[in-house]
């Protein structure tokens, strides 16, 4: 088991707790708007919660599905059930019209393209449909980036998203 020292990708940015909101069944969110297929040997449901870290595309061989990361009170703890990602605040992982990958509270934005179709490969890489490559584009905030399921600009770089088990350090 390897412990990852870098910060987890998705952090909770809200200073005060919000009430838990009921989330309708994922089929009610987008109907059949899931991307087709899944990579070989991938799982659409995991029986544990996890974090997600960003890896450079060249580190595909280093992804093992066995890595861990430290968690703190700002860590977004994520689960996947039937291809639907949810975080510890009740938000659903989705791809919206501008192709950004984000977690949103229900009701989801009107321009959601996909709110399901995610899976985790044997190597621990998150995939949407058959694709496990995402794109990181620098944002206004120094040192941070926004994630997309396709390249939206020349300055965006391809990345992998590795699912990591969480531990208190």
TrEMBL record:
It comes from the Eukaryota. Residues 1-22 form the signal peptide. InterPro entries: PIR1-like_C, Yeast_CWMannoprotein_PIR. One of its GO terms (molecular function) is structural constituent of cell wall. GO terms for biological process: fungal-type cell wall organization. GO terms for cellular component: fungal-type cell wall. It is found in: Secreted, Cell wall. Residues 83-159 form the Cell wall mannoprotein PIR1-like C-terminal domain. Keywords: Cell wall, Secreted, Signal. Its main location: secreted. Belongs to the PIR protein family. This is Cell wall mannoprotein PIR1-like C-terminal domain-containing protein. It comes from Tuber magnatum (white Piedmont truffle). The lineage of its organism: Eukaryota, Fungi, Dikarya, Ascomycota, Pezizomycotina.
């Amino acid at each position: 088991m390897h412990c990852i020292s870098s910060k987890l990708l998705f952090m909770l940015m809200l200073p005060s707790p919000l009430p838990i909101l009921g989330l309708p069944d994922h089929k009610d969110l987008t109907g059949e708007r899931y991307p087709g297929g899944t990579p070989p040997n991938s799982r659409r449901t995991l029986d544990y919660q996890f974090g997600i870290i960003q890896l450079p595309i060249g580190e595909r061989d280093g992804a093992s599905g066995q890595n861990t990361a430290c968690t703190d009170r700002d860590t977004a703890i994520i689960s996947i059930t039937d291809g639907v990602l949810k975080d510890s605040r009740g938000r659903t992982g989705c791809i919206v019209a501008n192709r950004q990958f984000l977690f949103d509270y229900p009701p989801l934005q009107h321009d959601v393209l996909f709110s399901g179709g995610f899976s985790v490969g044997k190597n621990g890489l998150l995939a949407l449909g058959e694709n496990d490559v995402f794109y990181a584009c620098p944002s206004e905030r120094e040192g941070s980036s926004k994630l997309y399921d396709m390249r939206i600009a020349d300055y965006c770089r391809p990345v992998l998203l590795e699912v990591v088990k969480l531990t208190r350090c």
